[in-house]
Amino acid sequence: MNKYQDILYLAKPVSKVHPPMSKSNRAAQFSPFAALTGYEEAVQETARLTANKITLSDDQIQILNSVLNEIAQQLPESPYVQITYFEPDKRKQGGSYQRVFGFIKTIDDVYGVVIMKGNTRIPVHQIVHISIEKR
Question: What pTM value is reported for the model?
Answer without folding.
Answer: 0.66
